[in-house]
Design a protein that fits this description.
The structure is a single chain. The protein is mostly helical. The protein has two domains: 3-210, Growth Hormone, Chain: A, CATH 1.20.1250.20; 216-399, Growth Hormone, Chain: A, CATH 1.20.1250. It has 15 helices and no strands. Helix 5 runs antiparallel to helix 6 (142-149).
Length: 400
């Protein structure tokens, strides 16, 4: 891999200012991910005040992932031409404007319009922040930092759901969304103040207009990531239904689901500590995905398991998935090559990940409804196996 795009050499020490920029990029990701579950957390008071139907709210929740599925690769091309730090700043400003606009909305049309703006902001963050993390961290530290970056979705989703839900209970849903906008505004100011000159920080990336093609290995890793996202999001989306069906209260089922979502974080932290051992990458990826495929049988296909045992299985499944998620983010720059290819690879990763997140829940739900939960578990296992084979092909090419 041409590591010059990271800036600096492996022996350079990371300055306090660089650590601040790394933390800020991660914070932008957490802020963006908090918007994914925002409408799910604020649904009850919004329904009461605006007379919104459940299907309307469901579309609002999914719209942010639909933006990623449709526009991530295009957003990457724009960001490369505009400059990644400028693009990150613009994306955070879009998140700020969207939340403020939502706090003033009085109908579904306005909410849909501002959610569309929010989706663009979300996509802008997820395609720019990881590339900047790689540049700021340097070649030696980048894999570990990118593995930690992969935790931004579960951390942001949990903080957004719990924090905004608590604010809505304490005050109102409008106050909660306005607070989210204020947080994005503060984040935008911090991005502006911390901007630095770099390989492609405030200027178009070298080769941005050349549109270099992605390698087959990069596409394979992105496709495997899409399968990973379908599996993880599909399990989390249906876990409350499974647990309630086993006699658990709705609040307890939601708590288990939140724990399962956060369980991906330890797996990503673990991979950050061992990612510098290339000989283990293929085995780790295969073990992570195949173990997840086996555990989905305990979540969906075990009628005799009690609800707490199913919850534990879901937590373990997401620990295993977190390992592959961290590995995919950490190794993608090596798989892709130079800076423009790495940025385009993250766009492909975001687009296929969002597509998997959208496809997973209906895939598992349709199978369970028409063929039963055991069949749904079998689909999950097959998805894990296919993803493992594709990921192994990507990593085998990189090892060569």
């Amino acid at each position: 891999m041409d590591s010059s795009w990271h800036g600096g050499t492996a022996r350079e020490r990371v300055s306090p200012g660089t650590w601040m920029r790394l933390a800020l990029c991660y914070g932008c990701g957490v802020l963006a991910a908090a918007q994914i579950g925002k409408f799910a957390a604020l649904a009850p008071p919004m329904q009461r005040e605006l007379a919104l139907g459940l299907s309307t709210l469901a579309v609002l929740v999914a719209l942010i992932e639909a933006g990623g599925a449709l526009f991530a690769t295009r957003a990457t091309r724009v960001a490369l031409r505009f400059g990644l730090q400028r693009s990150l700043l613009a994306a955070v400003l879009l998140l700020c404007a969207a939340s403020v606009g939502q706090s003033l909305a009085h109908g579904a049309a306005a909410l849909f319009a501002w959610r569309g703006v929010e989706a663009l902001g979300y996509v802008g963050v997820v395609v720019t922040a990881p590339v900047l993390i790689g540049e700021f961290a340097g070649p030696r530290r980048a894999p570990a930092m990118l593995a930690l970056w992969s935790t931004f979705v579960p951390v942001g989703l949990a903080l957004g759901t719990w924090g905004l839900g608590w604010l809505a209970d304490a005050s109102s849903w409008r106050t909660a969304t306005l607070t989210s906008g204020a947080a994005a505004g503060v984040c935008a100011i911090a991005v502006w103040l911390s901007r630095s000159e770099g390989a492609h920080g405030n200027a178009p990336a070298p080769g941005a207009r050349a549109k270099p093609p992605l390698s087959r290995a990069a596409w394979c890793l992105a496709i495997a990531f899409g399968g990973f996202a379908a599996l993880g999001v599909g399990v989390l989306a249906l876990l409350p239904t499974v647990l309630v069906g086993k006699g658990l209260a709705v609040a307890d089922a939601a708590r288990w689901t939140a724990w399962a979502s956060l369980a991906a974080v330890p797996g990503s932290v673990l991979i950050a500590s061992i990612v510098r051992r290339p000989a283990t990458h293929r085995a780790i990826a295969a073990a992570s995905l195949l173990l997840s495929g086996l555990l989905i049988g305990a979540v969906f296909g075990a009628d005799d398991l009690a609800a707490p045992a199913v919850g534990v299985a879901a937590v373990l499944l997401n620990v295993a998935l977190g390992i592959f998620g961290g590995l995919a983010f950490a190794l993608l720059p090596q798989v892709a090559g130079d800076a423009p290819r790495a940025a385009r690879a993250y766009g492909a990763l975001a687009q296929l990940g969002a597509s998997g997140s959208l496809a997973g829940p209906p895939l598992f739900a349709f199978t369970a409804e028409h063929l039963g939960w055991v069949a749904s578990a079998a689909v999950g296992f097959a998805l894990a196996v296919v993803s493992a084979v594709i990921a192994d092909g990507a990593l085998r090419r990189t090892a060569r």
